[in-house]
Design a protein that fits this description.
By secondary structure, the chain is α+β, with helices and mostly antiparallel strands. It has three domains: 152 residues, Jelly Rolls; 98 residues, no CATH class; 90 residues, Jelly Rolls. It is 28% helix and 28% strand. The chain has twelve helices and 21 strands. Strands 1, 14, 15, 16, 17, 18, 19, 20 and 21 form a nine-stranded antiparallel sheet that branches. Strands 2-3-4-11-6-9-13 form a seven-stranded antiparallel sheet, with no helix packed on it. Helix 6 runs antiparallel to helix 7, helix 7 runs antiparallel to helix 8 and helix 9 crosses helix 10. It is globular.
């Protein structure tokens, strides 16, 4: 196994303290939004000696990935593991299907757009289903409400914009009506002016203060979004979406096409190895709402919570309905400082193991490594079964 240095992403919405604290490093006053552990070519993790993980895999895919994974995923590590720490709301976004991503990536390549071009939507040819397991209380928006429930939340706000949205949903309480309402807010041709959005925010605040809201939580979220993105139509779009709160250890899966925005908290996130994000608003980054509307699903759906399943006495797994990744959590409670016991860690193939608490000893037939919190290792498929001892907790990303 090989020690792995994650790649830090300093996006504006990140916490200035959560990730430095997790990594045991000094905060520098800048936002630390994510740490990437994986082989995505935009930000591959590094092995000792400065070798990038994607280069190491390309040099010997059969040993690092195993025959089955190498064949199924064309000699590429199919998952990307992250620590994510939003202090401010992320963009309102969706991820494309694999087919749409491959077609659009090829089209942008044919158009001569560089991978780092600000006019690009697609950084690779892959889909990006993802799952988040909360490490702290974590809040988000995910998926559309039923049209009737959304209409009830819009009713009585008394602004021109909310009256128009309410009328659309009452006349057509189906997915078609919801698509029309959402298009009214975000499409380039119908996007409302900032003044109209500010009227909606004022109405939500007044309703909340009067204690008359059918959803006090969504009215609070509208005010929060408006503080960071005043006048953005994505603020009003929150009235159509499901608010989500995850407690530590709870998980949520986000499939392709699901509209979502993470708001606040710290979590472990695992996804297919992609950076394809289509944004509709709530961001200074590139917004292409018309492209996003081609991929978004407006079908009413509650957030897809994933319950952990017990694998053995020390490990639980969060199974997502995809072939690209699987995430497990292992908690060991051996006496302090004792590494004599060994506990089997379920899983096989290429794995990334990330220390979350305490300190554990990882062991395969090929070697051993002491893993403290905030550090990660890559375990090649050729290393075989993994065992662990000590006192701590770690996450393991692998392929089903």
């Amino acid at each position: 196994m090989h020690e792995l240095d994650g790649r830090i992403q300093h996006y504006a919405w990140g916490s200035a303290t959560a990730i430095p604290q997790f990594l045991g490093r000094d905060a520098d006053g800048t936002p630390w939004a994510e740490v990437w552990y994986g082989a995505h070519p935009l930000a591959p993790s590094q092995l000792p000696g400065g070798l990038d993980l994607d280069a190491a895999i390309a040099a010997d895919p059969r040993r690092t990935l195993g025959d089955g994974v190498a064949r199924a995923f064309e000699d590429r590590l199919p998952f990307l593991l992250k620590i994510i720490a939003p202090e401010r709301p992320l963009s309102l976004q969706v991820h494309p299907t694999r087919e749409h991503a491959a077609e659009s990536f090829a089209a942008e390549n044919a158009a001569g757009l560089a991978l780092d071009s600000p006019h690009r939507n697609y950084r690779d040819d892959n889909h990006k289903p993802e799952m988040l397991v909360a490490l702290t209380r974590f809040t988000a928006l995910c998926g559309f409400r039923t049209p009737r429930r959304a209409a009830a939340i819009l009713e009585g706000l008394g602004t021109d914009l909310t009256d128009r949205l309410h009328s659309l949903l009452v006349r057509n309480p189906t997915a078609h009506g919801m698509r029309a309402a959402f298009r009214t807010l975000v499409s380039s041709s119908m996007r409302p002016p900032a003044r109209a959005v500010e009227e909606v925010v004022a109405a939500c605040r007044a309703r909340h203060e009067a204690g008359a809201s059918p959803s006090p939580r969504i009215d609070r979220i509208v005010s929060l979004l408006a503080e960071h993105h005043p006048g953005d139509p994505g603020v009003a779009a929150a009235l159509l979406l499901n608010p989500v709160t995850l407690q530590p250890g709870e998980a949520m899966f986000v499939p392709a096409g699901a509209l979502h925005a993470y708001l606040h908290g710290v979590g472990v996130e695992i996804m297919a190895a992609s950076d394809n994000v289509l944004r509709a608003g709530l961001t200074p980054k590139r917004v292409d709402a018309d492209e996003m509307l081609q991929c978004v699903s407006v079908a009413a759906a509650p957030p897809l919570r994933v319950a952990p399943e017990r694998q053995n006495a020390t490990s639980v797994a969060y199974y997502a309905p995809v072939d690209d990744f699987e995430l497990s959590m292992t908690t060991l409670e051996d006496p302090p400082g004792v590494f004599g016991r060994r506990h089997a860690v379920p899983g096989s193939g290429p794995r990334i193991v990330l220390g979350l608490e305490g300190e554990v000893l990882l062991e395969t037939d090929a070697g051993r490594h002491v893993l403290p919190a905030g550090r990660a290792v890559f375990v090649p498929a050729a290393d075989g079964a993994l065992r662990a001892g000590g006192r701590g907790r770690f996450a393991q990303a692998c392929v089903p």
